[in-house]
Amino acid sequence: xxxxxxxxxxxxxxxxxxxxxxxxxxxxxxxxxxxxxxxxxxxxxxxxxxxxxxxxxxxxxxxxxxxxxxxxxxxxxxxxxxxxxxxxxxxxxxxxxxxxxxxxxxxxxxxxxxxxxxxxxxxxxxxxxxxxxxxxxxxxxxxxxxxxxxxxxxxxxxxxxxxxxxxxxxxxxxxxxxxxxxxxxxxxxxxxxxxxxxxxxxxxxxxxxxxxxxxxxxxxxxxxxxxxxxxxxxxxxxxxxxxxxxxxxxxxxxxxxxxxxxxxxxxxxxxxxxxxxxxxxxxxxxxxxxxxxx
Length: 294
What we know:
alpha/beta
């Protein structure tokens, strides 16, 4: 199975170097190295990195040398001009979001895969759960995702965007509400919802862009991405709009075309949103390495 790592982000809120290549371990490890090791331990045997062309040299030097020791490494590029037939970038240079990032790897993936962000750490149990799910006897329309508690995913140094999950009693995902500018404000977690800025439940499960997909999902995502582009052309947002994976998944669930099992995980999530996040993450990994987790 494949680990698909989305590493083409611009990191506009992260100052001081290339965010994806920032070191967090005492031996110069990046978050990606720990993620790849966790995935390999769970059973994933190849990594596909979606990167930008301007960081290709530095990225390959790191990944081939360090991650290539225990996983097959492959690369592709997310470019604003790579679009479904009938569309062109119309001068746009900024990528179109995480759905386009997945589609950038379509020619490299023909097996079940899990997607993650390069600058996030998810913990080993999520990989184990997703690998077990994808390895099981299931219909191709059945997908999965790791669910993390909202309170464990908030940055202390800036507002974040999260996809808040709505699930039934069987942990089947009913939908994802993309919620923006989430932050802890005097002990209350607040976020921008379609109904205005509201207090949020810290125990709500959220999507951290860790979805397990059947390869057949690629065709569905491409179709939804084309529909998004049509809407963006019609409403005038073509130069600025993005299409996140949780939004595409939410639409496909509403249409009855896929089901998504939410696999709760109690592992601690770490992510680099702003540069100020880095010292805390480095301290956490120093402790994990002292405990021989890595």
